[in-house]
Amino acid sequence: MIAALAQHAVGSPLLNGGIFVFFVLVTLVIVFRASHRTKSAADYYAAGRSFTGPQNGIAISGDYLSAASFLGIAGAIAVYGYDGFLYSIGFLVAWLVALLLVAELLRNTGKFTMGDVLSFRMRRRPVRAAAAVSTLVVSFFYLLAQMAGAGGLVALLLNVTNKAGQALVVAVVGLLMIFYVLVGGMRGTTWVQIVKATLLIIGAGMLTAWVLGSFGLNLSALLGEAAAKSSHGQAVLSPGLQYGKNTTTKLDFVSLGLALVLGTAGLPHILMRFYTVPSAKEARRTVVWAIWLIGIFYLFSLVIGYGAAALVDGGPQRIASMPGQENSAAPLLAYQLGGEVLLGFISAVAFATILAVVAGLTITASASFAHDVYANVIKHGNLDPDREVRVARITAVVIGALAVLGGIAALGQNVAFLVALAFAVAASANLPTILYSLFWKRFNTSGVLWSMYGGLISSVGLIILSPAVSGTAKSMFPSLDFAIFPLKNPALVSVPIAFALGYLATVLSKNDTANPAKYAEMEVRALTGAYAERSLTAPVDVVPSQPRQSLHPMAAATAPITRPPATPISSVDSAASPPAAIPVAPTNRVFWWRVLIASAVLAGVVVLTVSVSMSRVLASPPQGSDTTPQLGPNTAADVGPEVAIPALGGVIQVGKSPGFVAVSPNGRHAYIANRNAQVVAVVDTAINQVTATIPIPTGPPQFLALAPDGRTLYVSIFNDQRTVHAIDVLDTASNTVVATIPQPARPYLPAVSRDGKRIYVPNHDTASVSVIGTDTNTVIAEVKVAPNPHWVTFSRDGTRAYTANHESNVVSVIDTTTLEVLATIPVGASPHSIAVHPSLPLVANVNYDGASMSVIDTTTNRVLATIPVGEHPQDIAWAPDGRFAYVVNEGSNSITVINARTNQVTATIPTGTRPTSIAVLPNGRQAYVSNVDSGTLTVLELTG
Predict the structure, then answer these.
(1) N or C: which end of the chain has fewer CB within 10 A?
(2) SS3 534
(3) Domain count across the chain
(4) Of 374, 397, 416, which one is at a domain's C-terminal end?
(5) Helix or strand holding residue 539 (H, E)
(6) What are residue 195's DSSP bridge partners?
(7) Which of 378, 400, 416 is the last residue of a domain?
(8) Per-residue pLDDT tens for 299-354?
C-alpha cells in the first residue's frame, strides 16, 4: 500500500485538497463572526481581555504546537528513537519558566506588548524601539520558517512538485494569514487557535489510540516492533543515535536545550497571549492548561513516532526516503491506519496548525510595530487608538507580503536554522531583559539596551558564523564555508553574554540611575495586579524631579503615594489615570521564592541534560581494543579515530530509476544515470535540486566517469537486449554528447587515468578491459582479465589498475605501463565494486553475495580484513580524508559506515529503496546515494 506513495503525492491529492478547503472555510467563518466584536484597540490587540484561562490555555497550546512539533518530533522519534523525544522534553520543561517567572507578572505589568513591560520604569522611546526590533526579528524568522514549511507540506500532499506551484501555495497561506489578522484581530486569531488545538489533540489522540490498539495496548510490543523494523535495532530505544558523537555535538545539544527552555518564555507571540485574559489568576490558569495540553500532546507524539516506525510499510527507511523525510511519518502512519480519509484529516490539521501559528506571529509583529514604534516612538504617545489599529493592520499586510516573499525564496532550502534563530534570539535578547526588569531594582535603561541589543547581535552573529548557515549539507548555503563558530545554536554563549552585558551596563552607567519609586510601583502592580486595566502612565524619559514616597516593601502598608498627574498614552481604556494612592506590595519574599524555584528547575534541566550526554558516553563501545584488526602498520597514525554517524540531509527527486551517481571534481554538480528515462540528470549541489537533464540518444546510461578537469563525462551504455554497448562522451559545459565510442560488450564502470589521457572500460561479457585514448576517442588496447569485470579504479600513482571481477571472486591487478595482469587476488563472493584508499596503500572491494567488504594491502596484494556489511553491497566510497568507508547495501536499503582505523561498523544509515551507488563530495561534508526504486537521491551529511 505504501508503495503507491513513493512517487510525489501522499494519498489522494483531490481528497486532501477538499478537506483542506473545508477546514479553511470553517476558519474563515469563525474569523468573520469574531470580527463583529472587534471594535477597539483592546479588542484588536488583546481580544478585550475576554478569554478565560482554560480558553487561553487551549489557544496558547495551539500557538505553541507548530507543524514542526506535530510532524517533526513524531518523525524524529520514528527515525532516531530516544534522541528524537529529547526535543519534547525541552519544549515542555520550558513552560515551567513561563509559569514561575513570566506569565502572571507580565500580564499585570504590561498592556499589549513586551515593550510595555520593559519601558514601564525606563526611558520609553529607546526601550520600546529595542523591544520592537527584537520582536520583529524573532517573529519574522519564525514566520519565514512556517511559510516555507507550508509550501513543503502541501507540495507533498497535493502533488505540487514545481517551484511555481509551491510558491502559489505559500502565497495562499499568506493571504489567509493576512485575512485572519485584518478581519478577526486577536479575537479571531484566538478562536482559530482554539479550534486548531482541539483538532490537533483529537487527531493525535486518534492516532495514539489506533496505534496502541494495534498492539493490544501493549507498549512493550510496540517498542519491540519499532526496534525490529529499524536498521538501528535496539539502539532506537536508548540515547546516542543523533547526539553525542563528540564533545562539540554534546555542547550543541546542551545549547539547543538552553535555547528551548529559556527561549519559550521570551517568544513575543507567546508573551502577547497573556494579555488576553482579565486577571493574573486567569494568566496562571492559562499556563497550567497549556502545560497539561502540551504535555499530553508530546506523550501522544511518543506513541505516534514509534508507531510509525513499527507500522508503516518499510519502517524508518521508507519514512526517511520520502520527499518530506521524517516529517512524513505522521501522514504515512495515518494513511497506513485509516487510508485516505484519515490522512486527509491529519494533513488538514497540520495545515491548520501552520495557519494558526503564522496568524499569531503576524498579529504580534504588527502590534509591536504599531504600538511600540509608531505610537510611542514616532508619535510620542499622542495617537488616536483607532488610527493605531489602522497602522497595525497596514503593518500586518506588509509583514505578510514580506513573509510570502521570504517563504518563496526559502523553498527547496533547509529552513530549520530559522526556528533555531528565533529561539536563540528570544532566549538571548528577550528573557534576560524581562527578568532583569521584573526582579532587579537597580536595572536601568542602559542595561535594557545593552542586554537586548547585545543578546540580539551576539545570537544572530554567532548563528551566521555557525554550521547552521554554511559549511554542511544542511546549511542555508551548503556550497559556502565561513563557519568559525562550532555550535549550531549559540544560546550556550549568547545567553550568558546578554546577562553579563545587562549587568555591566547597569552598574557602570553613572549617569543613568534607576528610579526606585517606579520599580516599587511596578513591583506592586506585578504582584497584585492593581490598576493593570488602567492606562499606562506617562513615559519615563527622565527621572521625575519631584520627591516621591518610597514604595519599598519595608514602607508602612498604609503610607499613601502621591503621584503627579499622568497623561494616558496610546490607551484603549477611557478610564482616568490611577488614583493618588495604590496598595503597597506586602513583601519582596515572593520574588525571591520564584527565583529560587525557577533556579532549581533550570538546574534540574541542566543535570538531566548532562546525565543524558554522559549516558551516551558510557553506553558507547570502547574504541580500538587489542583484538581490533588494523588496516596497516601505520594506519592509526594516519587515520583519525572518530566515530562517524552521518545524518540524513534530505531527499532529491531525480526521476525514474536513478543508477550510478558521480560528482564533479570541484563538487559543484552531481550527475545521475537514469536508465529508464535514458537521460543523465544534473544536480546543483549548492541547492540540491535537479537543474538539467541531458538526453542520451545512444541508449540507456548505466555508469559515469568524469575527467580529472571535470570538463568531460564518460557514459557507459548498454540495453537489456545487449544490442547496444558503447561509451558516450559528454561535454559538461554544454551538456551535449560530442562523441560515441563503440564497445565489444556491456561496458560497466569506466575509470579515467590520473592524467586524463586514458579510459579503462571493463567489458562484462568478454572478460576484458578496453583502453581508450582520450585524444582520439578510440580503443587502443584490450587487456584480458578474469571473467565478468565490473569496476575499474587506479592507484594513487597511476601505475596500477584494479578490477573487481564479479563472477570470478577475484580482483585483477593491471600494470598500466605494460598492460599486463600482475596478480589475481581472491576475495569474497561476487566482488562488485572497488575503491582505492586516498592516502594509504589499501584497496577495498565489496562482495555482493558475500555481504562483506574486503580490504587489500596493495604492497603485498593480500586481503587484510573481511568486514561484514549489509545485504548485497553494491558500491563503496572512501571519505576524502580516508577515515571512513561508506558501503551501499542494495538488499538492506542502507549505508554501512566503517571506521578505517578499527575496521568496525560505526553506523548503519537508512536510505531509499534499492540504493545502488554513492558519491562523496570532495570537501567530505556530504554524499549522495542513488535509490533506484524510490527515484531519489538521499543526501547524507557526513560531518557536523
Answers:
(1) N
(2) coil
(3) 2
(4) 416
(5) none
(6) none
(7) 416
(8) 898 898 888 888 887 677 667 656 556 677 887 888 878 777 777 777 777 777 77
